Amino acid sequence: ESDTASEISFQFHKHKKTPSTGSHSSDMASVSSVSGSVLSVYSGDFGSVDAQGTVEFALDYDEKNREFQVHVSQCKDLAVVDEKKGRSDPYVKTYLLPDKARMGKRKTSVKKRTVNPIYNEVLRYKIEKMVLLIQKLNLSVWHNDPLGRNSFLGEIEVDLASWDWSNRKLNWYPLKPRSLSAVNGVDHRGVMNLSIKYVPPGSLGKCPKNPPTGEVHIWVKDVKDLLQLRPSGVDSFVKCYVLPDTSKKSYQKTRVIKRDPNPIFNHTIVYDGFHTEDLKDACVELTVWDHEKLTNHFLGGIRLGLGTGLSYGVSVDWMDSTQEEVAFWQEMMSAANEWIEGLLPLRSL
After folding, report:
1. Region Disordered: which residues (predicted)?
2. 143, 57 Cβ separation under 8 angstroms
3. How far apart are CA 270 and CA 252, in angstroms?
């Protein structure tokens, strides 16, 4: 059914607080190998004001230092957030899209009690020009609330591929409401086509391959519409862990597929050592990465489990499966020895 396969033994050792000598099992409170949440562009927006006003900025690329520079000058006539006090405390935030996780956000200082803030600050990104030209700049203005209940005041999105790079002057641009492309498309990281199967212990009768313990089979078929981080394309591979174990024993990966936004992996992984009750506390984490010489870049992933937030009674941040992922895992649990096929969207983890 697949051209590559790997089979490894996996034991949870639920009652051990620390691994014994030579054991590959990690403590139950282990966190995922992919840590840190990436908030969406609009995370923390608690306001309901309409976008208004303008922002003055200039763009430049420093060839010598290989640096993209956003010179944020000022804003005018911003919306008032606190009408009782007649105040807004605005700041400017920027992202490079579509992969905001890779380059991160930049933001100016906060100017208090003004709807006409003056910044004169430069936000900088170390990035190759060729990579920059396949990005979009999302520049947004926010009211800063001391309790973190920030309010969106407006934005502008710039397609850097069509930007006039000879234009280094400060220019005024009208702030707009949230763009549908940013709201709906910013976290689109592609979709994974896979099948999973649970083989309970002793369920195959007199079959020679009847497993003494349960097995989870994961068949990674292909991925479509991966983020393109550079003009030459993406060199992708898939990592797999069965959490809470993040040891080398649990870690498996596919081969690297080069320069293809729609890679076909056709790779099967088999984890044994399962008991049926373990399925409530385990989580299969599949992540897709772009392979480069110095470092690999996270493209997106899925987590298959019940999404309860708990693993063997311990609160963990990786037991956060979406409704689609939970339904997929539950279908596998209820259909022993059957392949369950699914198409699941990749997401930030």
Report:
1. 1-29
2. no
3. 10
- The angle subtended at Cα 37 by Cα 39 and Cα 11, nearest 5°, is 155
Residues 198 and 342 in one domain: yes
Per-residue tokens: 55? 């922002």
**Is 334 contained in some domain?**
yes
Of 23-32, 48-57, 69-78, the poorest mean pLDDT is in 23-32
Do 214 and 120 belong together in one domain?
A: no
Kindly report the CATH number assigned to the domain that includes residue 253: 2.60.40.150
Q: Range of 230's domain?
A: 190-346
65 pLDDT band, cuts 50/70/90, is: very high
Q: What is the pLDDT of residues 118-142, one digit of tens each?
A: 999 999 999 889 888 888 899 999 9
Place of tokens 């019940």: 306
* 146 exposure class (CB count in 10 Å sphere: 0-12, 13-18, 19+): exposed
70 and 99 share a domain? yes
Q: Where are the beta strands (DSSP E) in the chain?
A: 4-9, 54-62, 67-76, 90-97, 106-107, 118-126, 136-143, 151-159, 171-174, 191-199, 214-224, 236-243, 252-253, 264-274, 283-290, 297-304, 310-311, 314-315, 340-345
Q: Do residues 152 and 169 make contact, with C-beta atoms less than 8 angstroms apart?
A: no
